[in-house]
Design goal:
The protein has two domains: about 10-50; about 60-175 and about 215-350 and about 360-420, Neuraminidase (6 Propeller). About 15% of the residues lie in helices and about 30% in strands. It is of the alpha+beta class.
Length: about 425
């Protein structure tokens, strides 16, 4: 017995009965057609309910149609990556200890399939924060060099495997190690005009052969395949510094920050972390600037790859990731975070003596004059988006002195939903 594709209600039964009665005076071949049309009509009528036309998923909803609820001082998201940045695979460390004593292994990054790993290491001829990348098997077997000697990598947290393990992204620039000074022509020894025997040819170098890779004086995004081949720059904008890379969960693009050299230098002089303008970079090198404001927190993708979020001080921007007509939304959180900080400080500080001056309450937030803001009131420095409807943000005080200072770390949560107008209310 076949089941109906649509729920049969009382009105539907009456409609079918009427059609059958009408079909008695028509040609028999037409009766099934009319009954089918009646069923379709009944099904379409049941779809007229506004509930049935709501977006089924937040990924189908433009950023400009999002609503949010703010929750202050929540637990840190359980999905955050707590792995230490200096993690080293023991087998690869053993190879460096035995064969590569002049190189310093900084970190290893395993591929998603657990078969390979990237070895980030410093060399004695180029001291400083720059490094190079080699490809290893997980058992410690060296496979190949990924970066040529004249390409220096920067920002360890921006060396990333794509989620399917097919691509490797990192940030690099032309190496700044000293180059040998050429000997003046007048000091070169004279070369005999003729030689009775051909000169001996130099022995072939055992160093790996690299193809011609374009190099830049400022930090650009580079891309290669899982075997370390097809190395190429994904960005080619000399003068811009790219950092804070993030793969889309479906690997269709990268999000990043970028700033000018003078903007980077100014933040360094103020002992502050870098700020950049968020953008999306497709795998063919096309770039879409998301916002002209400087963001401190690295941009993050939603778990469904449909949107990107960035933080600007006390605001959060949300942008459509892949759309022919992308939209954006700005969520202002200054007052919400300020009120939450007043409550946080009052709760964490010991009760004051009766003879001390009374403090302002949560209902009357302090003014924004210098020295009157709560100590826990700080800008957004990190974002995490583990589920389409849950966007976590961390506020903190960070300064880069001899040792980085990171205090007053607090997590908050934005619960995202569709606006009432979208729901037809």
């Amino acid at each position: 017995m076949h089941k109906s594709l649509y729920p049969v209600t009382h009105s539907t039964q009456n409609l079918i009965a009427a059609v059958r009665a009408r079909a008695g005076v028509l040609q028999p071949p037409m009766a099934p057609v009319i009954i089918l049309l009646a069923l379709v009509w009944a099904g379409c009528s049941s779809n007229s309910d506004p509930q049935r036309i709501r977006p089924r998923q937040l990924r189908d909803l433009p950023a400009a149609r999002l609503a949010y609820t703010f929750h202050a001082d929540v637990d840190a998201p359980p999905e955050i990556n707590s792995e230490e940045t200096n993690t080293r695979i023991e087998a690869i460390q053993s190879d460096f200890d035995a064969r590569r004593k002049d190189d310093a292994l900084l970190r290893t990054i395993a591929s998603p399939d657990g078969q390979r790993a990237l070895a980030l290491y410093g060399t004695t001829d180029e001291p400083g924060p720059t490094f190079h990348i080699d490809l290893y098997a997980m058992d410690g077997k060296f496979l190949r060099n990924i970066t040529p000697p004249d390409l220096a990598c920067v920002f360890q947290d921006s060396v990333l495997w794509s989620s399917d393990g097919s691509l490797i992204a990192f940030v690099g620039r032309k190496t700044q190690k000293p180059q040998p000074t050429p000997t003046p022509l007048e000091e070169l020894p004279e070369v005999p005009s003729a030689s009775p025997l051909p000169s001996a040819l130099p022995s072939p170098s055992i160093a790996p052969a690299f193809g011609l890779v374009p190099l830049y004086n400022t930090e650009q995004v580079y891309l290669c395949n899982r075997d370390g081949f097809d190395l190429k720059p994904l960005t080619k904008r000399e003068g811009l510094i790219y950092f804070a890379l993030s793969w889309a969960p479906d690997d269709h693009a990268l999000a990043a920050l970028a700033c000018k050299e003078n903007e980077w230098t100014m933040r360094e002089k103020e002992f502050k972390t870098a700020m950049g303008r968020p953008r999306i970079i497709s795998l063919d090198g096309q770039e879409r600037l998301l916002d002209d404001s400087l963001a401190e927190a690295p941009p993050v993708w939603s778990s469904d790859s449909s949107k990107v979020a960035a933080a600007f001080g006390f605001d959060v921007g949300i942008y459509d990731g892949a759309s022919k007509a992308p939209t954006q939304a700005r969520i202002p959180l200054h007052e919400a975070l300020l009120t939450a900080s007043v409550a946080f400080d009052e709760k964490s500080q010991p009760a004051k003596k009766a003879d001390t001056a009374p403090t302002k309450t949560v209902a009357t937030p302090p003014t924004q004059q210098a020295g009157t803001l709560p100590a826990s009131f700080n800008p957004i420095v990190r974002l995490e988006w583990p589920a389409p409807d849950k966007l976590y943000l961390q506020t903190s005080y960070i300064r880069l002195y001899n040792e980085p200072i990171n205090t007053w770390q607090r997590w908050h949560l934005l619960t995202l939903s569709a606006q009432a107008a979208v729901l037809g209310r």
